[in-house]
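Hi all, posting the design record for the shared folder.

TITLE: backbone redesign
STEP: 1 of 1
STRUCTURE INPUT:
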């Protein structure tokens, strides 16, 4: 299942590589959406609001895992493209050592600081207890979350996007079945939603780790390799830290936005929680395709085939736009139906808040696609300063404009929704400009 992305038709190779990644994230998002659907339909609007209130905090922890995934994938892809298998094995061993250390530290931070974070974002009092319970159980499983994302990043850097798909299918089905068992049958409430994710994610991460170990042994290296290398850790960190910071700052920005949303009461929080699940589904699919472009770029740079990079960008952008179309059509024209998956007609205010959000945000999905594809090439080419600049621009604008429109101009929650298109559009223009500079051509790799 290991695929060399430096040979053959760029479009064919990238699409064959990226589509399983897309399906993987689709299954991942389906079971996360299922959590919210089951919470909203079988526990109530307050439970959906509780899960939604804790979401931006859980996304900070997810940001570290995803950022590490991206950073590790770029370094391993380059070593794989250059056929340096001994160095590749050293990199992977080093990555797992760092993974354990970071996950322990962040688990302790989450356990002792989770309640303070919920208070910081002004979580409504009527959902605070459930939000705290959900958050703590989520944090207990952070090691599994981190381990799975690292394994996923290494699989994709080796050109294997199918194995993560198989694990995600199994994990998604297990999570949904466990949600039903814990919440519907055992009546465990919000805790049941969290424990279902914990169990399904834990099983998937352990199986992924064991499979990866077997896969790495199949790569024949002629030289002995170190089990840990400080030099390799630095190389991984140089790419991983900006990716982690990018993901974390976005999540921190979402904390500020959530704080603004929370000020409008639990009904708006519930509506925002539901439409954020739907929006995250769409945007994560685009970002996942961008990660495929990063791996494609890194492998071809490692093989000194820089001329293929622009071909990969065009192929990734076309695939991303095709993926955007159904999301836009469904969310924009059938937003009320989509919200009905989470809430019944008694939650009219929450449903309307979500519908308003989708009408404002979804037409700009096509702009987001172009932006993340440019960012994917920049990240794969280790042009991290440019990559970070576009990310921070988007983040700063969305947070600042959310408060300006909502509070300064008196537009209320609608003003918060309007901040997304402005931030995406301006940062996309910056990403396109940096991509056209082609900084990877100036690097000695």
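Okay, here is what came back for every position:
SEQUENCE:
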């Amino acid at each position: 299942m290991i695929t060399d992305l430096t040979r053959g038709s760029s479009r064919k190779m990238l699409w064959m590589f990226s589509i399983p990644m897309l399906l993987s994230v689709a299954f991942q998002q389906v079971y996360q959406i299922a959590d919210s659907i089951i919470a909203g339909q079988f526990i109530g609007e307050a439970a959906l609001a509780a899960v939604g209130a804790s979401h931006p905090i859980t996304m900070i922890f997810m940001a570290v895992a995803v950022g590490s995934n991206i950073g590790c994938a770029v370094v391993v892809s380059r070593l794989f493209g250059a056929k340096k298998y001994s160095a590749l094995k050293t990199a992977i061993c080093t990555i797992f050592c760092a993974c354990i250390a970071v996950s322990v530290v962040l688990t302790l931070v989450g356990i002792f600081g989770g309640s303070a974070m919920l208070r910081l974002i002004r979580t409504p009092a009527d959902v605070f207890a459930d939000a705290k319970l959900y958050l703590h159980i989520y944090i207990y499983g952070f090691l599994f979350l981190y381990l799975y994302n690292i394994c996923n990043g290494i699989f994709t850097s080796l050109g294997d996007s199918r194995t993560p798909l198989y694990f995600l299918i199994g994990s998604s089905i297990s999570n949904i079945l466990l949600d039903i068992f814990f919440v519907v049958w055992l009546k465990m409430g919000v805790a049941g939603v969290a424990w279902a994710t914990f169990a399904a994610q834990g099983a998937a991460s352990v199986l992924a780790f064991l499979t990866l170990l077997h896969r790495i042994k199949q790569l024949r290296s002629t030289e002995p390799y170190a089990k840990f290398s400080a030099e390799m850790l630095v190389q991984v960190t140089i790419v991983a830290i900006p990716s982690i910071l990018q993901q974390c700052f976005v999540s921190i920005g979402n904390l500020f936005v959530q704080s603004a949303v929370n000020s409008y009461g639990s009904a708006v929080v519930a509506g925002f929680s539901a439409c954020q699940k739907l929006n995250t589904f769409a945007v994560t699919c685009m970002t996942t395709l961008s990660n495929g472009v990063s791996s494609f770029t890194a492998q071809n740079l490692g093989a000194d085939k820089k001329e293929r990079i622009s071909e990969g960008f065009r192929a990734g952008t076309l695939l991303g736009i095709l993926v955007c179309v159904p999301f836009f059509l469904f969310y924009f024209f059938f937003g009320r139906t989509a919200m009905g998956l989470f809430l019944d007609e008694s939650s009219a205010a929450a449903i309307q808040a979500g519908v308003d959000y989708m009408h404002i945000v979804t037409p700009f999905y096509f702009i987001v696609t172009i932006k993340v594809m440019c960012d994917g090439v920049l990240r794969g080419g280790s042009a991290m300063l440019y990559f970070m600049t576009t990310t921070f621009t988007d983040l700063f604008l969305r947070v600042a404009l959310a408060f300006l429109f909502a509070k300064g101009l008196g537009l209320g929650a609608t003003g918060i929704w309007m901040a997304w298109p402005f931030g995406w559009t301006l940062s996309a223009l910056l990403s396109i400009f940096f991509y056209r500079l082609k900084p990877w051509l100036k690097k000695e790799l």
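COMMENT: The first helix runs from residue 10 to 43.
Let me know if anyone wants the other runs.
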